[in-house]
Amino acid sequence: MFSKTSLLSLLAAGASAQQVGTLTSETHPSMPIQSCSAAGSCTSVSTTVTMDANWRWLHTTEGYTNCYTGNEWNTTICADGATCAANCALDGADYSGTYGVTASSGDLTLKFVTEGSYSTNIGSRLYLMASESKYYMFKLLNKEFTFDVDVSNLPCGLNGALYLVEMDEDGGMAKYSTNKAGAKYGTGYCDTQCPHDIKFIDGEANVEDWTPSSNDANAGSGKYGTCCNEMDLWEANVVSAALTPHVCSVEGQTRCSGTDCGDGDERYSGVCDKDGCDFNSYRMGDQSFYGKGKTVDTSSKFTVVTQFITNDGTDSGTLSEIRRIYVQGGKVIQNSVSKVSGVTDSNSITDAWCNEQKTAFGDTNSFEKLGGLASMGGSLSRGMVLALSVWDDHAVNMLWLDSTYPTDKDATTPGAARGTCETSSGVPSEIETSAASSSVTYGNIKIGAINSTYGA
């Protein structure tokens, strides 16, 4: 619902680039997935992950001078976007030492705060790779996506997000001649928040009108944002979880400026649906379903299944429903059912359900305006990239996920209560110290025909 990028990067080193540096070798950690047939037979696919460009060290092509330090550009090296792209190089990553990312037996663990030799790193975002130079493209109409997750070490204010975005397969390398780094180095990010903190967009540095953040030592915002369709399969911590499709009126990664970005008071005038249509069990009235000791017990690992149902049961049909199933302790657990007055007693997302929810909560229905599930299905048919991340929220402290939000509403107001966290929780300056050792672990990713990837 809010930016996953604006708060997270290296404190000391720079971040993002378009040329390729040679000071640190780039070796992608292994994270194999499985592809499953209708009969439930699964085969392994050799995939890896790469670190998003926004986290990487950005320095001069001929030396060690930072092009970006803290939350500011070196305006001598980066006088404008094109010059910066020519002068600056994006280097390889020390995944465990700098970023707290470790891969083991198909699992990927992301640590929240990592004290490295030269910097303190906050959070991370990685993408699944099909090869050294291309992202793995997921086409999930009439398919399901399954993964294991452990959020037991992810408290209030943090978000372990696993989601799909309609990025270019090569990170924009073919489209933009100034992008020499491509997918190998994690370029080309976009999402429905149209984030302005991405340091390189369309092969150029986002230096124009760059404004350092007032409450984040690492982030700032430039003139441009980068937009695309987004399917939030999983945004969660130990308290709350949300499943949320977001749609845009544009296809693929698109640079925005002005009203099209939907910033501030123009939130509902932009090309993307920033709110989405979210299914958060707590928000939908079932407060006993998800959490420590609850039906889905977040004190231990569990499996999350998301099914993309089409109107005619074919891979070329129109997306008509998104279903959620959990598996834990050998038991298949169907998603919780809506218990909100005015909303159908349902445990899945449909256009009709979204319309009822928006009305019941008094929310603006930009999801319907921008095409709803049919629009989301178009993106799923074209192909989307998997992002795996952990982040904190300098905008509203993640209260939209796990607390009462907006904070000026009573918790009894329909849609306001989203979890049990205090409205005073999630302040980044506090949790980056008190919850520094937090982490999330993802693994056992499977894709395949409906009901082929899981079982008791």
Automatic annotation (TrEMBL):
Signal sequence extent: 1-17
Top-level enzyme category: hydrolase
Catalytic activity: Hydrolysis of (1->4)-beta-D-glucosidic linkages in cellulose and cellotetraose, releasing cellobiose from the non-reducing ends of the chains
GO biological process, one term: cellulose catabolic process
Keywords, alphabetical: Carbohydrate metabolism, Cellulose degradation, Glycosidase, Hydrolase, Polysaccharide degradation, Signal
GO function terms (MF aspect): cellulose 1,4-beta-cellobiosidase activity
Coiled-coil blocks: none
A Pfam family the protein falls into: Glyco_hydro_7
The keyword Signal is annotated on this UniProt entry: yes
EC number of the protein: 3.2.1.-
InterPro entries on file: ConA-like_dom_sf, Glyco_hydro_7, Glyco_hydro_7_sf
Family label: Belongs to the glycosyl hydrolase 7 (cellulase C) family.
Protein's UniProt name: Glucanase
Species this protein is from: Lophiostoma macrostomum CBS 122681
